[in-house]
Amino acid sequence: MKKGLTADSLEIKEFLHGLIRKMHLELESRIVGVYLHGSLAMGGFNPARSDIDLLVVTDVPVGMAEKQKLVSLFLEQSGNPFPVEVSFLNVSQLVEWKFPTPYDFHFSEYWRDRYELDVAQGTNVCLDGEEKYDIDLAAHITILNHRGICIEGRPIHEIFPTVPKADYLSSILDDYADCLEGIPEKPVYSMLNLIRVYWYLKEGEICSKKEAGVWGAENLPAKFGATVEKGLAVYTGEKMEVQFHETELKQLRDYINGKVESFGI
């Protein structure tokens, strides 16, 4: 593994190498490369809250039988002990940039229940043969190009195209809209993502949620400092739980949204 892993990196390395070895065994398609993005690549990984974010590129499209094997593999491996979010793409999908971006297979803990239901019923509802598209991949690939790690295979710059800034912005704004509504239910995730979008618009910074929290605590008006610091403490694992008042969350949300809208968004 290349540099960029922190904290329990030995355990993470062993987990990743074991997972990748099993992916090779399950796939007839040749793996061109395995790439790490997200918090683990950017030094903000918290095993209690973070996913290991991967992009896997194959030489040809992943077939249905292979997808079924991947479902079983990730149902077994994800969360044991680290949750995994992974997307499989083939090289032909990356020759010309498309937005939203096509992909062959995706797994995350968010999809676990649906995959488990498919397995239990012997169906393939989540694995139909139609090509799928994901607006989030524009953000994932942008982060990969700027801050990512090639675990194995061809270098990042040889495989992944440059994502137009407009598509990256559309990608992060899609999640931003959910965070505006969801901040009462998911305060830590939402506030850090809102700050991340604002920082990008203000200074062009592509950052992790942890980095966004540090920047927000230092650069937002002082009245928001304590709120952001509480969220950051939970996200980094310094504290297990804190209490947020609905008013402080809404005030922070409305302040950031006003600043974001001032950019013409």
UniProtKB/TrEMBL annotation:
Keywords linked to the UniProt accession: Antibiotic resistance, ATP-binding, Nucleotide-binding, Nucleotidyltransferase, Transferase
Catalytic activity: spectinomycin + ATP = 9-O-adenylylspectinomycin + diphosphate
Residue ranges of every copy of the Adenylyltransferase AadA C-terminal domain listed in the record: 158-256
Domain of life: Bacteria
CDD domains to which the protein is assigned, alphabetical: NT_KNTase_like
InterPro entries listed in its UniProt record: AadA/Aad9, AadA_C, NT_sf, Polymerase_NTP_transf_dom
Domain Polymerase nucleotidyl transferase stretches: 26-87
Protein name: Spectinomycin 9-adenylyltransferase
Species in which this protein is naturally found: Planococcus salinarum
